[in-house]
Amino acid sequence: MGAEYNPILAVDSYKASHKWQYPDGTAHVSSYIEARTDKSGLEVPGTLVFGLLPHLRRLADTPVTEAAIAQAKTLFSAHGVPFFEEGWRRILDRHHGRLPIEIRAVAEGSVVPFSNALVQVVNTDPEAFWLTSYLETGLQRALWYPSTVATVSWAVKRILLEFWRTTSDAPVESLDFKLHDFGARGASSAESAALGGMAHLVNFKGTDTVEALLAAAEYYGEPMAGFSIPAAEHSTITCWGRDGEADAYANMLRQFGGPGRLVAVVSDSYDVFHAVEALWGGKLRQQVLDMGGTLVIRPDSGDPVEVVALVLKLAAKAFGTERNAKGYEVLNPAVRVIQGDGITPRTIRAILERMKADRFAIDNIAFGMGGALLQKVDRDTFSWAMKASAVEGGGLWRDVYKDPVTDQSKGSKRGRLALTRDASGVWRTVPVETCPEADNLLRPVFRDGEILSTPRFGEIRARAEAALREP
């Protein structure tokens, strides 16, 4: 926390002893990273790969230094594990502190079926064979979290697309603002908020996570990746007192309303149903209509399915609806609803199922997701792993693998690997010897301390969006 990044120490302690555990004569170790299986229950076809570039930038910008070696030597000595000072000094002296490795990866934004190699890592200096697996901690951490958040967010967009197709005749681009990131305060750190929030923005353009905007600009060259609107919180409403609830709402309309503008107002500080029926739909109805923009009513407690259903019915009664070409009701453009409490992919589906049964189009609602988006994920959500699959010594490559009898799901791949996709769209991990270089989708992204690929955010979004349209 606050300490300067040291690439030697971005590691699990036990890695420090691994140099002495390889067979004599080992010169190269090739490892791969994969998301093995879907344990989320989201039934997604694969993982949306995202977030490797920030880590590569860190590796490129932070070569090994004399000070880093000294710090590591002192720490590991006190910590009780050996330190391979000679090896790190070779990297400093021979490679000017640049890590002698090559990293290949599938293009960010790709949605790749589970149990495929997504990244492959190999050392480029034969005397640094131990470095490949040493880097596992940082590489896995850099990839599994943003990729998992991006995949969860993408899974929600699939759900939204399903209901858009059946209930809406609005442009499909309207889905870009249907899931808003409310997760900054619930993230475990500012870095998590930046990485996870940025991962969400691969699929959507609504966010309140400012760190994500900064990260998308810094790493992927996106000047403004997401947008928000003025919105109330309970403190700004309740400070007017219960008797002043209508005045608090009227103030929001005066301050932020206007033609073409949106303003979100949390409306459950006391009684959300009374607020919709008697205040928004009664005392303030004409002010809502006259402002020329859109009031977004936000319930924030209770059963999300039941509360949203009743709020929509009350809003429809107060402001009216229009039936679209698919036979579903759309509220007066002056009013919409956003549900941000208790939102997960499952509750989103449940709310939309209820809305569909009640003949309300998806146009009427947006969702805010916080902890379930940025925090309720872990490495096991999609079973991420990095494993050695081949070693070389004396000019000969040899397959290595694990195959535990106690858990076949933890078996690993063997050999040097390539990732391909045929004309019908089927992804396969194949031996690299059988794959022409031009067909290998694991492309070099980092070699000997230099970044070889710098994808733009728009490219990543386009890949994710294209995958969404696939059968």
Automatic annotation (TrEMBL):
Alphabetized InterPro entries for the sequence: Aldolase_TIM, DUF5598, N/Namide_PRibTrfase, Nicotinamide_PRibTrfase, Nicotinate_pribotase-like_C
- Keywords noted in UniProt: Glycosyltransferase, Pyridine nucleotide biosynthesis, Transferase
The record's EC number reads 2.4.2.12
Q: Does the keyword Glycosyltransferase apply?
A: yes
Enumerate the catalysed reactions: beta-nicotinamide D-ribonucleotide + diphosphate = 5-phospho-alpha-D-ribose 1-diphosphate + nicotinamide + H(+)
One Pfam match, by short name? NAPRTase
Binding positions for diphosphate per the UniProt entry = 185, 234, 298
User: What are the residue boundaries of the Nicotinate/nicotinamide phosphoribosyltransferase domain, all occurrences included?
Assistant: 177-447
UniProt: beta-nicotinamide D-ribonucleotide binding residues: 208, 298-300, 340-341, 371, 379
Could you cite one Gene Ontology molecular function of this protein? nicotinamide phosphoribosyltransferase activity
Query: What are the residue boundaries of the Nicotinamide phosphoribosyltransferase N-terminal domain, all occurrences included?
Result: 8-103
Identify the pathway: Cofactor biosynthesis; NAD(+) biosynthesis; nicotinamide D-ribonucleotide from 5-phospho-alpha-D-ribose 1-diphosphate and nicotinamide: step 1/1
Keyword Mitochondrion attributed: no
Q: Which GO terms describe its biological process?
A: NAD+ biosynthetic process
Gene3D superfamilies the record matches? Aldolase class I (3.20.20.70)
Q: What NCBIfam families does this protein's entry cite?
A: PRK09198.1
Report the family membership.
Answer: Belongs to the NAPRTase family.
Protein name, as recorded:
Nicotinamide phosphoribosyltransferase
Mind giving the lineage of the organism this protein is from? Answer: Bacteria, Pseudomonadati, Pseudomonadota, Alphaproteobacteria, Rhodospirillales
